[in-house]
Amino acid sequence: MYIRIYATHQDVKKKDLKNKKVVVIDTLRATSTIVTALAHGCRQIFPVSTTNEAKILSSSWSKEEVVLGGEYRGYRFAHFNYGNSPLEYEEEAIKGKNLFLVTTNGTVALQKTSEASEVLVASLLNGRAIADYISHIDPAQVILLCSGTQGHFCLEDTITAGKIIYHLSEKEGEIEGDEMAIAALQLYQLNKDQLLELMKLTDHGQRLIEQGYEQDLNFCLREDIYPIIPQLSLSRIRLLNRGENIGMEKKL
Ligand SMILES: O=C(O)[C@H](CS(=O)(=O)O)OP(=O)(O)O
Ligand SMILES: [Mg+2]
């Protein structure tokens, strides 16, 4: 298996992902939010890039079936039900709902994968489960698509990519990859016992703290609390093997 990492979604064109197995990562905070919502019984999530798109797409459902969520530069939209804080999606109210999620980086990265053969959604909250799944299907090549922040490399997505490679190598021995993959693995191995200290140094970590979201930062670093496999297919994200995922316990 060969691992290739893209540091930002701006680095990749849709055609680069054609027929590829792609794992999308946006640790702060979109993919952490998606994983949390699905772990709490959300029916399916539509990643969209504008509030208008969310409103148009969601109009096919009754109001009771729909939740609108998201943010721009960290701040929630006035007429939406929720923002982009994973903690908001731990509620019973999300159960059975169709979530239309608009975010600055993560949902845009997810929309880039329309030509991929399989798309998975990863965060630190479910990184080991994603690695287990990939090793089980054993593809020749996997692309880890980090969302990045506003077109720039970010540590938090690279750390999650490194964690996935770390767990893959635990199962399969040495993993081949590009130099970003080697760097991501080293970064995770060197910092896995001090993730919070590292994240507090990042632009996004500092911004979340300034915006009053320090709890989000702590939460997004809780490794493997939700061992689920969210899969994007036909423009919506659902749990793979929903029956197996349902009833899983949150490991605190
Ligand atoms: O809400 C977030 O954490 C970010 C917004 S930004 O990086 O502060 O602009 O969005 P995401 O798409 O989850 O990276
Ligand atoms: Mg992000």
Automatic annotation (TrEMBL):
Its EC number is 3.1.3.71. Keywords: Hydrolase, Magnesium. GO terms for molecular function: 2-phosphosulfolactate phosphatase activity; magnesium ion binding; sulfopyruvate decarboxylase activity. SUPFAM superfamilies: ComB-like (SSF142823). InterPro entries: ComB-like (IPR005238), ComB-like_sf (IPR036702). It comes from the Bacteria. It catalyses: (2R)-O-phospho-3-sulfolactate + H2O = (2R)-3-sulfolactate + phosphate. The keyword Hydrolase applies. Its cofactor is Mg(2+). Pfam families: 2-ph_phosp. The keyword Ribosomal protein does not apply. PANTHER family: 2-PHOSPHOSULFOLACTATE PHOSPHATASE-RELATED. Belongs to the ComB family. This is Probable 2-phosphosulfolactate phosphatase.
